[in-house]
Amino acid sequence: MAIIGTRGYPYVYSGYETFVKEMGERLAKRGFEITVYCHRPLFAQRPKTVNGIRLVYVPCIETKNLSQLTNSFLSMLHVCFSKTDVVFVANSANGPFGLLPRLVGKPSVINVDGLEWLRPKWKGLGATYFRIASKLATKFYDCVVTDSDEMQKIYLEEFNAPSTMIAYGGNPRESSDSSLIAQWNLTPQSYYLIVGRLIPDNNSDLIVDGFLASGTQRKLVIVGDVPYQDAFAQRMKNIADDRLLFTGYVRDQEALAALYHNCYGYLHGHEYGGTNPAMLKALGYGCAILALNTRFNQEMLQQGKYGWYFEKEANSIRDLVNYAETVPEQMKQLRESSRDGLVQKYNWDFVTDEYERLFKSLCSLG
């Protein structure tokens, strides 16, 4: 099986790369021959195999908008002339490329991720491309995978296209080294937390506005950045207030776990995706979650069983933060029950089982 459309392995930068690590390693241990196509410029060292996974390094045009598309296109050309039985592609942007494996008779699967055509970072031509690409994905690939029940419904509503729902996995964790947060002069329960890229899609600007309007004396720790020069991200980081702490990327997974474990509350503003990896971490690491009220977040928090919601306006965030400050016992209860929200569909072994069944069924059809 070949995996195309991520930055590669074992490079872990975002949800798709984590997905490749968790599912790819499990399938390799089960005897699958896994090949991952990697962005050549990201890898100074280029071993041929890591943990039983074969790696192919493909060049790309290194720009924000073209790196993924050019890498995926060249990877798809390469895989069409390989002995791979099944092609797995990540990201709906790669929808048009599904025509290539179809022409050579290779079964193919695409995981379409979120509502890319609605994301604020894609405007005009970009949004149009993503919508067309998402529709073509439903035509060219043998199977479309959506990662949440609500996203599955949306693909039926928008494109009249059935899909297979296989969620993203989470790894529950009971404890971490609380001393690691001292590097930011933080103490347990002294801060709220945001984790995610500094892009408009995640509404971090709205959360900051609402938070600063609240009466809390706790800090707001913002973990994340963007790997390019960006006016929105820079504007966020230029906000001068002692209650805001921008850490940038936290690549030390032990330190990141400590930040999750010791926050008073986790604020989640992601709007356009399905099953969100940062939310799964917040559940698995025992956070009290305050989330934007979307159909995806309602699904993940089971209609409020494992978190509270705010609307997409600063006053709603302000009011919810002020309320959270007055009910520390209820916030503690949310933290103590949070891990129970990682139900079976978010278990990596179960997720891998589902993909294994899907890939084997496609091989038998081929």
Summarize the helices and strands and which ones pair or pack.
Elements: E1 2-4, H1 15-29, E2 35-39, E3 49-50, E4 53-58, H2 67-80, E5 87-90, H3 99-103, E6 108-111, H4 125-140, E7 143-146, H5 149-159, E8 164-165, E9 191-195, H6 204-213, E10 219-223, H7 231-237, E11 244-248, H8 253-261, E12 265-268, H9 277-284, E13 289-292, H10 295-300, E14 308-310, H11 314-326, H12 328-337, H13 348-365
Parallel strand pairs: 1-2, 1-5, 2-4, 5-6, 6-7, 7-8, 9-10, 9-12, 10-11, 12-13, 13-14
Antiparallel strand pairs: 3-4
Low-confidence stretches at least 5 residues in length (pLDDT < 50)? none
Q: Let me know the CATH homologous superfamily of the largest domain.
A: Glycogen Phosphorylase B
Helical segment tally?
A: 13
Tally of individual domains: 2
Please tell me the overall pLDDT.
93
Helix/strand/pairing category? alpha/beta
The largest sheet, given as strand count, sense and whether it forms a barrel, is: 8 strands, mixed
Strand arrangement, major sheet: 3-4-2-1-5-6-7-8
CATH topology of the largest domain: Rossmann fold
Percent in helix: 25-40%
CATH architecture of the largest domain: 3-Layer(aba) Sandwich
Overall geometric form: globular
InterPro entries: Glyco_trans_1, Glyco_trans_4-like_N, Glycosyltransferase_grp1
Domain Glycosyltransferase subfamily 4-like N-terminal: 14-163
GO molecular function, one term: glycosyltransferase activity
Keywords: Glycosyltransferase, Transferase
